[in-house]
Amino acid sequence: MSITTTKSAVKATPNTTRPSSGGPGVPYIPPVKKQRSVTVWFAYFWLALIILLATFAWVLPLAPYDAPVGSPRTPPKPGDLDLLFGTDKAGRSILARTIWGAQISLVVGTVAGLSGAFLGTVLGLIAGYYRKKVDWVITLVADVLLAFPVLILLLAITAIFSPSIPTLVIGLTVASIPTFMRLARASTMSWASREFVRAAKNMGAGDFRILTREILPNLLPTLSSFLPIVVAGLIVAEGSLSFLGLGVPPPTPSWGGMINGASEVLQRAPHIVFVPAIALFLTVFSLNQVGDHLRCKFDRSMQG
Amino acid sequence: MKKSTTAAALVVAAAIALSGCASGGASSDPAPAANPISGGIARVVEAGTPTSLDPALLQNTGPRMPVTGNSLYGQLVTDDPVTGEIKMGLLKEFATSDGGKTFTVRVREGVKFSDGTPFTAEAVKFGWDRIKVPTTGSSVIATGALVDNIKIVDELTATVTMAKPTPHFPSAVLFTQMNWIGSPTALQAGAEAFNAKPVGAGPFVLEKWTQGDVLKLKKNQNYYVPDLPHLDGLEVRGIADPSLAYNALASGQADVVMTISQEKAANAVDAGNVATPYVLGGGNALIMNTSKAPFDDVRARQAVSYALDLDKLSEAVYGGFGELPKTLFKADSPLFADVPVHTYDREKAQKLFNELAAEGKPLTFSMALFPGGSAMFEAIQSQLSQYQNVKVTANQRDQSEQGSLPVKGDFQMLSSAIVFNDPDPRIWLALHGEAGSSNYSRLNDAQMNTALNAGRDGKTIEERAAAYKKVAERFQELVPMILTNVSYFGSIESSKVNGITMYGMGSLAPDTLWLQP
Prior knowledge:
The structure holds two protein chains of two kinds. Chain A contains ten helices and no strands. The two termini of chain A are about 15 Å apart. In chain B, about 30% of the residues lie in helices and about 20% in strands. In chain B, the strands form five sheets. A ten-stranded mixed β-sheet of chain B has the order 8-9-10-1-11-16-12-15-13-14, with helices on both faces. In chain B, helix 1 crosses helix 9, helix 10 runs antiparallel to helix 12 and helix 15 runs antiparallel to helix 16. The interface between A and B is medium-sized, with 23 and 24 residues.
């Protein structure tokens, strides 16, 4: 209901964009050029590329990520697909490991991000709608979690339950719940005081219906624009944990693990560190750009 | 840059080879080149971080915490790296006259612990007795168990009766933390009190200890050797990762770094520092636990051994700086036997893997890993991925378990080492069925046991050499472990540091250290 209202609000503000064709004394204002940022387009392109490569890694003509394809520390050799980015310390193809590593990083980041978003939203909805004691308890728990330095919390979790992909996902989910919870709670509190919610209540709608049919749809744009940024942060966190030796167990490649493993040969064979580092940088950068772009889009429509 | 790295590597390799010519292997200066200067505080990095300052719980090997132990507790005895001869430290006499059945231990006169209490034979008895006891939790409990009982003769003398004749027992002592004796009164006050105030008779005493961070030591004014130590103090840090440890030296945050990386030693020399290598017999080894599946089957062990191309492994893990031991003893050792310890044969390996799979038990095993050790695992996993019917997974453990894991035998494959100067009793402790927890592979073979006993008891070099040839042959047939690199220990230090002396397994004794300002 409310979404329709906002959309028509956008449509109702065109005056400044149409060239004025008025009479004497009215200045000609050229239409505002829609800015197409190169970086945003590149960001979308890179994300599409990396997601495609990661999804179809099984069918790509790559060497397996644990098989030696040449002698150790070979520099990049364009012309040979396996040696395109060279080999690492154990002689494995860096191209193959980077793409398989993309799978791990993206899956871990996305699954943890989505789980954290889901759980955080549920808790935020409950806290923001019901207020009073429920709100107090949930906010307290979230504040305690937020007060912990994230990396220390993750280190503790992975040290207690030995490192594995499920442990990693659970740890990262727990780390991202409080942020989503706070966002959802604040938005819920703002939307819950609106007239249409009151109207729905008067018409006899139960709490669950109001939360899911009235409030939640309004939270989704904000949350989904925040999601890529959180996923980017989680990918970096996974990289940090792998760098500290507590991430994905070997030989499964992850970008952070690849960087860690080659840090001691940085001087002799820098490509082993730089290839996954550049991939990590571009992915995180793109996610942040996309997140910002989405936020701009939705924020404008919300303000309408 | 590359040229000088190669040149430096050749120099270090030559130094190692030359030092290996003597049956011992350290290339420390026999006499100080210049007059030592007193004063200064040296910053030392070693790989191990102690969780307790109890001497029984520290570990006296180059890669662990030798400086911590030697600083606080001194040494009962040391050895000459060239001749292997035992040299006296806090002890005045440590000898046997009945072929190793009993030893007379005499403590030097007038030595006091840092709290003023006298250093007596009773203290040595107390220290050695508690190492045998499982509740102490010492990693060298099996070495302690070589002793049957100790009788105090007078204040400074004790008679040690061995469980079995062990003619080379002093060598066993100085390779372990049995060489470090703490004050019995202080130890009996409990772990917490002792960690706050550890009492030993070493060249340094505790100033401040921040667990997990830095150990600050200051000069013991009542050290039993006059004019030593030269330094006013030491700062000891534990850094497990070899690259981080090396970086501490390279960035000037440390003066001496204990290292077992030939590559880092070459890098250090390249950067204008000094490398002091200390190479022994045996080597780094992949140890397979023969007491539990799947390595209780000799075919599984042989299969893995045939499957690995150790030259490629060395290239991957040691960056081309490693040296593969081809035989159990070094070529210049009088006990050398030309029995190759490893053969690379892909077909034989695959055949054995298939045989095991056909019996319904395809080979799947885990390799115990500590932080910083994944390069070895990844290189092995990468090579084994080329075969059918074999799979290896990573079993990641915490750094603090490094001393206890092999003792408990809680692994299938582990990267560790078998290191010796004189083979007895170290090879006996590593391979004999009755050795207990020091026999990491838990090997128990009748022929091997007999040959080890013969090597220990042999009266002449010829007898011993024949016995150890049999040991090498059985080692080759049974493959309890796969040797991956020579036993390289040593330190890298800035050119300001002088007076580096090591004994045992690359254990640095800091009393002779001095700094050129």
